[in-house]
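User: Please predict the structure of the protein below. I'd like the answer in structure-token form so I can feed it into my own downstream comparison script.

Assistant: Understood. Taking the following sequence of 333 residues as input:
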Amino acid sequence: MSKKYDVYAIGNALVDYVIEVEESFFAEQNVEKSLMTLVDADRQQELTAAIKGLIKEKQGGGSAANTIVALSKLGGNGYYSCKVANDEDGRVYLKDLHDNGLDTNLKEDNLPSGITGKCLVMVSPDAERTMNTYLGITSDFSENEIDEDALVNSEYLFIEGYLVTSPTGLEAMKKAKKIAEENGVKVSLTFSDPSMVKYFRDQMQEVVGASVDLLFCNEEEAMLFTGTENVEDARESLKKSAKKFVITQGKNGAIIFDGDTFIDIEPYAVTAVDTNGAGDMYSGAFLYGITAGHNYASAGKLASKASSEVVAKYGPRLDFHKLQELKTEVFGK
């Protein structure tokens, strides 16, 4: 019997403020480049003031949200559990999910008071993205936001690694994984960012447990998690933690382990403008591919094409027509 949802995702709901900055900005403002750093409200206000009028765009975001939006635009059925506040950003966020064809636990007439999370996405001339995030109300994301009925009625659970920074978020990750495993729902996880593995490795290991069905990570995250010095050793070691996995390699493509063999996915050369959201897009397109019945090699090809297109523009998402065009290129009509 087919499930109602292809993927049920949990993650931090954040409104992204995309900003172009010069290389000198990081030293001047004491910002650690190329990582996601959690900040408090005062620090984010300080940075926003320093940035002044450089905000390029403002949009719904968050890692798992970008992933599930990509899946939905490609034609998959998705559900997103998250937490926003009853403020302007929260209402914009809820509308964005609905506009992208997603079901959610959020109810417009029942949003809690507080401040919706925000992420300053600073894009430098080398196309690297550096994020400073004030989680706001999403730092209280908990088991209460999990819709068990929707989760059980999904083929895959997708867990965002960023949730690991919050005690309640960590418990929600473990609870969602437990519900999935007890009900035959496959568990997928993304490490999200090297800092999540570097600073929260023990907590991430709690979530991974004996194994996950599908893991998404990049080379740095793979090596940090496995304590190895190169990607060859990392990919062998990852077999102990994930039945299947994807290691993205930026401009070098990706390595997929389908449970039996390694598949090298070729990159698609583009001029990088903004790497924000490349990993999220890869996960979303890949999950769409495998839940739509395609093999891992074909799903990897779609994911590689889609993530390359994201890198060639500002922002972490592609429009519906571009994704449909890519889908037709890879899978045919």
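That's the full token string. The mean pLDDT is 93.
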